[in-house]
Design a protein that fits this description.
Elements lengths: L1 H38 L4 E7 L4 E7 L2 E7 L5 E2 L7 E2 L1 E6 L4 E17 L11 E2 L24 E2 L4 E9 L2 E8 L2 E4 L5 E15 L12 H10 L27 E5 L4 H13 L4 E5 H4 L8 H15 L3 E5 L9 E5 L6 E5 L38 E5 L4 H17 L10 E6 L1 E4 L2 E3 H6 L4 E2 L6 E2 L7 E6 L10 H9 L4 E5 L6 E2 L2 E2 H7 L6 E5 L16 H6 L6 E7 L4 E2 L7 H15 L5 H10 L10 H7 E4 L22 E2 L2 E4 L3 E5 L9 E6 L9 E4 L5 E5 L5 E11 L11 E8 H18 L8
Parallel strand pairs: 14-15, 14-16, 16-19, 20-25, 20-26, 26-29, 29-30, 34-40
Antiparallel strand pairs: 1-13, 2-3, 4-5, 6-11, 7-13, 8-31, 9-12, 10-11, 12-13, 17-18, 21-22, 23-24, 27-28, 30-32, 33-35, 35-38, 36-37, 36-39, 39-40
Helix pairs in contact: 3-6, 11-12
């Protein structure tokens, strides 16, 4: 009996030692994994996107009835002749020093919407030129084949657009396709959820020399991406490189010639007085050995000043024959129009060479590093003063300073005056520029995406539309009178040419404008901003900005064709126009250069659709990029929400409630978006009253350490910063624990077969 007890004690001691060793080993493995996660790049980055059920309506085009889809925050896209189906852009931040191995899409809840649908085909884009485009008679002249057996469109869940860099942060841009359409049966499906999983591997050869480690860069990248938790993987300072301290810090770099340097000094002083530190450099500083300086040398110089002095803006102080622009090659769509165009985006986006294959076509979609796309996300924001002599410099500088000084206070007779100008675009079917322009008033959710517009509560908005004018053709004298009476902003859509815009000619600008309250003009018209003078004369954008001491202080105009569509408002140029004002009044980006670039980057996910790259390249700012719109009385975003409160430790699979609150300075109602640290984010939840406590619940499916953050936006879509994170640990997985315990018992049975005979 005593011997049996001793054996039992020995057996239990062995069991105890075995369990202890197993638990210690398990703990050691967990710690090693945790340490590796801190030191190494995660193998996978995941982001989940949710989609609302679409609505479908009927529309008749050329005597055929089609079904048109509307899905919230997923505009319908496609190339000419393809079914117009919803798509969503995904902007996913990659960890530093890594490359992508694979991209997978996991879908959930594939919903059947019915059969027999005939989806609206994408129409042909048509140029907004006064001489028309003879090869296209209307915008719906071809259509996909409805009779292909079991052809599912788009036949894929995503397109990889490219990997682009913003100040050293690498962003993977995808186009997601949340709907499927069978052209034979007319069956239509949509996915309620799409999870993007990106497999990455560390690659120390993949480093970005443009990373500065600045806090302002971190703040900017967070606004651009769908997975802000990855930002913390990037260093805040660079060992042995540039950091937050510059020997001489500047905000704005003006590049001009020795001849014009002194003429730009008053503009430099005006910016300095407003806290925008400005430095002037000349072509001699770039290359003192010869007279001609290439665009590549200018770009390298900008890159160096960006790294050494922390600049954010660049003003090119010279016409194209004074300071050359890089001519970029672009094709409107597959088999469509091609051209070369001057584009100062080359000086804004500083990664790569823009000519990887070394041919004479700069800016092709395979001209980026390794044959990928060229860099299309800007490090600096660029504008150009198209000046060719001191008198033109003085006109530009004087008007820019006057506009800056007017921005110091809101004047009821000037700073709130906005004119929207629309012309008859095409007569078959009747297509009105005024219909496009109406979408800029207060905002629009037309064509499947939402943009904030010019607030009618803050601005006195007047319209000048052919649509509403007796005889449908307002006279030139009308626009001249409006400008001479003083306008703050003009936005125009109508047919144009190099020397013609808003029904005015170059001579009209010189002869009839008398205003000394200078406006900003945005126009979608063709060629009006073609500052490379392909026909031997200066474009009308130059006349508005530098040829006279009246007119405009700055314009955004097209270097080549602008593009629209008949019978609707979803023209390629209009997408950029809408996003421009969304940048200003929705995202609170008040500097003109930055707003222009933001309008492009918000459209980056559709860059490969018809005419989008064309518009991306051609919408140049002829003006000072650092100048801001007046914003004192404009809507303010909510304050940064309080750090979430709630359980800091829990079990996998269980739901936990988290709480936050913030206030809106204007008393507006507030929406909240939550980031759960596992790649998932909530939709915008609300609205809630300012100061109202918000509760939301969530459960995690895997063990891990998660940072829970929340941001807010008001009803005008002005967004706050992300809150400080609450760290939540999910150390206990109930399923894993049961599996582990079962495996342990089986192991004990194997090691100690007599153990359970004791009981």
């Amino acid at each position: 009996m005593i011997e049996k007890k001793i054996k039992n004690h020995i057996l239990w001691y062995q069991v105890f030692l075995t369990i202890t060793i197993l638990m210690s080993t398990s703990a050691a493995i967990s710690i090693t994994t945790a340490n590796n996660n801190n030191d190494e790049i995660p193998r996978e980055i995941s982001v989940t996107y949710l989609f609302d059920e679409p609505t479908i309506s009927s529309i008749q085009i050329h005597n055929t009835v089609y079904d048109r889809i509307f899905m919230k925050n997923a505009p319908c896209i496609g190339n000419p002749g393809e079914p117009s189906l919803p798509a969503k852009g995904a902007y996913i931040l990659l960890p530093p020093n890594c490359r992508v191995i694979d991209i997978k899409i996991h879908t959930r809840n594939r919903i059947y919407l019915g059969s027999g649908f005939r989806i609206t085909p994408v129409g042909d884009p048509i140029p907004l030129a006064i001489n028309g485009f003879p090869i296209l008679k209307h915008g719906m002249n071809r259509e996909y084949n409805h009779n292909n057996d079991n052809e599912t469109i788009p036949g894929k869940l995503f397109d990889k657009i490219g990997i682009y860099s913003f100040r050293g942060y690498d962003i993977l841009v995808l186009t997601l396709y949340p709907m499927e359409y069978n052209t034979s049966t007319g069956e239509l499906f949509y996915f309620k959820e799409m999870k993007v999983s990106v497999e990455v591997v560390r690659d120390d050869t993949h480093t970005n020399s443009l990373f500065r480690g600045l806090e302002k860069d971190r703040s900017e990248i967070i606004k651009m991406i769908d997975n802000p938790e990855v930002v913390s993987m990037y260093p805040k300072n660079i060992t042995g490189g540039k950091n937050n301290t510059f020997s001489s810090h500047y905000d704005l770099l003006i590049i001009t010639t020795d001849q014009f340097k002194d003429d730009f000094e008053p503009l430099k002083e005006a910016h300095n007085n407003k806290g925008v530190k400005t430095i002037i450099k000349t072509l001699s500083d770039i290359n003192n050995n010869r007279g001609d300086v290439t665009p590549g040398e200018i770009r390298t110089f900008i890159r160096n000043i960006y790294l050494e002095n922390g600049i954010e803006y660049v003003l090119i102080g010279g016409d194209e024959d004074v300071i050359p622009a890089q001519e970029l090659y672009v094709r409107a769509w597959i088999g469509g129009e091609t051209t070369y165009m001057p584009s100062d985006i080359y000086y804004a986006c500083l990664d790569g060479t823009y000519n990887y294959d070394g041919d004479d076509k700069w800016g092709e979609p395979n001209d980026g590093p390794g044959g990928g796309d060229v860099d299309l996300i800007a490090e600096v924001y660029v504008g150009r003063a198209c000046v060719g002599n001191s008198n033109e410099v003085n006109n530009f500088v004087d008007k820019t300073i006057a506009y800056m000084e007017n921005n110091e206070s809101r004047s009821s007779t000037y700073n709130d005056r906005v004119l929207l100008v629309g012309e008859l675009l095409w007569s078959d079917p009747p297509t009105w520029g005024g219909d496009y322009m109406d979408e800029l008033i207060n905002g629009s959710n037309a064509n499947g995406y939402t943009t904030v517009g010019i607030p009618s509560s803050d601005y006195n908005i007047t319209t000048l539309y052919d649509r509403d004018w007796p005889g449908n053709n307002w006279p030139t004298s009308e626009i001249i009178g409006h400008i001479n009476n003083g306008l703050y902003i003009i936005n125009h859509l109508g047919h144009s040419w190099y020397d013609y815009n808003m029904k005015m000619t170059n001579n009209d600008v010189l002869s009839y404008l008398t205003n000394d309250q200078y406006c900003f003009i945005y126009s979608q018209g063709c060629m009006a901003g073609g500052f490379d003078n392909p026909y031997g004369y200066d474009c009308i954008a130059e006349y508005f900005t530098v040829k006279t001491d009246h007119g405009a202080f700055a314009v955004v105009m097209n270097a080549r064709y602008g593009w629209g569509v008949t019978g609707g408002t979803d023209g390629a140029s209009h997408r950029f126009n809408r996003e421009f004002w969304d940048a200003v009044f929705g995202e609170k980006i008040f500097s003109i250069g930055k707003a222009n670039q933001d309008s492009k980057e918000d459209n980056l996910y559709r860059i490969n659709q018809a005419c989008m790259r064309w518009c991306y390249y051609e919408t140049n700012l002829l003006g000072d990029p650092a100048v801001t719109f007046y914003n004192e009385d404009i809507n303010n975003p909510p304050e940064k929400p309080d750090r979430p409160t709630g359980k800091k430790r829990g079990r996998v699979g269980e739901s936990y409630t988290f709480t936050t609150v913030t206030i809106d300075p204007d008393g507006d109602q507030i929406y909240y978006k939550w980031s759960w640290g596992d790649g998932n984010m909530s939709n915008w939840l609300g609205p809630y009253n300012s100061g109202e406590t918000v509760n939301v619940s969530y459960s995690w499916s895997k063990k891990g350490r998660y940072e829970v953050k929340v941001k807010s936006r008001d009803i005008h879509k002005a967004e706050s910063e992300w809150s400080d994170p609450l760290v939540v640990n999910m150390p206990v997985d109930k399923v894993f624990f049961r599996q582990w315990l079962s495996a342990l018992l089986n192991l004990l049975k194997t090691l100690f077969p007599n153990l359970f005979s004791i009981f």
